[in-house]
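Amino Acid Chain and Its Fold in Token Form
===========================================
Scope: a single protein chain, as residues and as a discrete description of its fold.
Amino acid sequence: labelled as such and written in the usual single-letter residue code.
Position: the record begins directly beneath this header, with no further notes in between.
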Amino acid sequence: MTNFEWNKENGKFTMGYMQAILPNLDVGLCTFYKTADRKSGISGAVRYHTADCVITGEYIVRGALADTNERIFKGSYYERVDNNTVMVAELTYDVNDRDAKYQYGFQQNYLSGKLRVTTDQNWQLKGVFDQRISPSANVQCSVDADPAKSDFKFGFSIQFG
């Protein structure tokens, strides 16, 4: 799969290529250049997939000068546990700052609703429950909790249309 894109509004050129090298293994390369601030970037990616699981890895280098380039490694894991449950994990490592961040979560599907819960490296919990009550109405409850700071937020919404 090859992708070329030129965005005239912000002067950005993007080019990407992804190739299957084995039945379950893909490798790819993507590059971009922005004319306005003369920043460029390149990334390489690998993806392994089966019927129920996807594992990806990506290494990104971007910036204006060689000394100030950002170097980031990203890895993610997605698994369909059963027909109604999906679990995901993502790790981002900034090579320059030597800083790692992760996020872990799951989604549980019900007959007319779904529950999504995530947590990150600071143990901040975020959860959303969506329930379709009719073909044109949806109820959503959300919670955002930071137990370390004793900060808890709750939200509720009803959507029509």
Notes: The radius of gyration is 20 Å. The chain has two domains: 1-107, 110-161. Residues 110-161 form one domain.
